[in-house]
Each structure stands twice: as structure tokens, then as C-alpha cells.
Amino acid sequence: MSIFLTENSKVIVQGITGSEGRKHTQRMLASGTAVVGGVNPSKAGQTVDFDGTSVPVFGSVAEAMKETGADVTVVFVPPKFAKGAVVEAVDAGIGLCVVITEGIPVHDSTEFWAYAQGKSTRIIGPNCPGLISPGRSNAGIIPADITQAGKIGLVSKSGTLTYQMMYELRDIGFSTAIGIGGDPVIGTTHIDALQAFQDDPETEAIVMIGEIGGDAEERAADFIKANVTKPVVGYVAGFTAPEGKTMGHAGAIVSGSAGTAQAKKEALEAAGVKVGKTPSETARLMRELLGA
């Protein structure tokens, strides 16, 4: 199985006519994703051609869902329009909204996150690579050819570390790999993904990649200790980061001892998670756990 994204997922792309939307729609189609439409209010009624596959453009998410049965949207909309795009997707009641856009003001992210609470739309991101269920579907910008379907679940704050871990464990493969994004406010957390992997009968083990800043990893450690029975290995990026400096992601800010890589490592190990010092060591720990 897979979580959040399956072979039956029907995907639309908000911003399909822009350069990023067009490029990554091509890649999603090439990996077998059922991209059934795009959304651009100013180009409704047109089609976009991708190597012989014509994808219709609709004026709204609601219209696209009505005409295609779409249940996933991927947002490649510029930052200043992203809040409106996500609110539109939530209003339409689509099941999954994957926000790839980076540089969205935290105030906007906070607004659309709050707006989605209690409604039927799960948000992944923003500022994330999306998610992939190898061999089934790919919603976002994750390379589809670096791994295969398998029994590991992966949840990560970092896009590039997601790709590295997928490649290092490519011979074992993944049920689903999710990049949740590194902004201070995100729609789907480590804990959300851990619960879904715990509930998925075909996910046998979990890799969790975190990074400095905030307390998400510490909260995830508490959750693992109380709720997760499957083996978990972890990696925390940022052991050499200077105190008080933002490193890469907007959420990666350390204050004093709070949010340091060492504090996160200790919290995870106290919950029974094996934590690698490097991504390669983390992959080796997973191989040892699985006897692979």
C-alpha cells in the first residue's frame, strides 16, 4: 500500500501553464501519474500538450474536480498568489493539496493552514518537494527514477535529503516518501506521517529526517514512544550549524539549546529511534534493522 497518494489518485496542477508547473507536470506524467487537468482562470478551456498527452485547463479547482474526478492538487503558483490557490482548493473540498511553492509569507501559510482546520483537505507543504508512492503516483518534484516500490516509509523536512535516502535504500524501496517542507508552519507534520505509516500494513519500517530549529522532532519522538510499534531510524541535519543562524529553511533557527541537532538526537534515541550521524549511516542502520 501507500499513504495519501495511490495509483488511483487523479491529480490536477494549479499553475500548469507556468514554467515550473509545465516542467514538473511533464515529469509527473512520465512517471505514470494520472494528471487529469490543470487550473488557470485566465486560460480556462485551453489544453496543454505534453509529448502527445493533452491536459485540459479549467477555470477553478471546483470545475476541474467536477469534470475529472480529481482528488489531488499540486500547487505551482507564485508566492503572492499561493494563499488564494490553497483556499480555493480547500473550498472545493479536494482531498490532498500539495504546495510546492517556496517563499510564501509565513502569515499567508498560517492563514491557509488555519482555514483548512476541520475541513476535508490535507495540506502538504508549503516549500516542499511533494510526495511519491513509487510505481503508483508522484505529486510534486521528487525524481521518480531513483528508487522503487518497497516496504520503507520516509518522512523528511528536507527535499535533497529525501532524494539521497531514497537512492541509498533504492534496492529495498519505499511505500511512500513524503517531503513535508521546512517552513515554520506546514500542513502535514512528522507526526501525521508517522501515524499513517504505522497504520499502513505494507510499511514495515520508517525513516524520519529532521533538521535543526523548532521542536517538531522532539514532539515526534514523544509520539513514537507512545504510538509507533514499527522500527524507526532517524537523521537530524545541522549538527555543525552555528547558533542563532537560519540554515536553509525558514524554520531552521536555533535558540540556545532548544532546537539543536544534539537535543533532537537525544530525544529520538530516548524514544528508541536509532539516529545516524550522516544520511549514509542512517541508511545503514535501516539495512541492519531489516536484515538487508
From TrEMBL:
Keywords: Ligase, Nucleotide-binding, Tricarboxylic acid cycle
Example of a GO MF term: succinate-CoA ligase (ADP-forming) activity
Domain CoA-binding: 4-104
Pfam families for this protein: CoA_binding, Ligase_CoA
Keyword Nucleotide-binding: yes
Residues at the active site: H249
Residues reported in the UniProt entry to bind CoA: T17, G18, S19, E20, K43, I100, T101, E102
Enzyme category, top tier: ligase
Sequence positions that bind substrate: Y163
Domain of life: Bacteria
Physiological role: Succinyl-CoA synthetase functions in the citric acid cycle (TCA), coupling the hydrolysis of succinyl-CoA to the synthesis of either ATP or GTP and thus represents the only step of substrate-level phosphorylation in the TCA. The alpha subunit of the enzyme binds the substrates coenzyme A and phosphate, while succinate binding and nucleotide specificity is provided by the beta subunit.
Complex formation: Heterotetramer of two alpha and two beta subunits.
Name of the protein: Succinate--CoA ligase [ADP-forming] subunit alpha
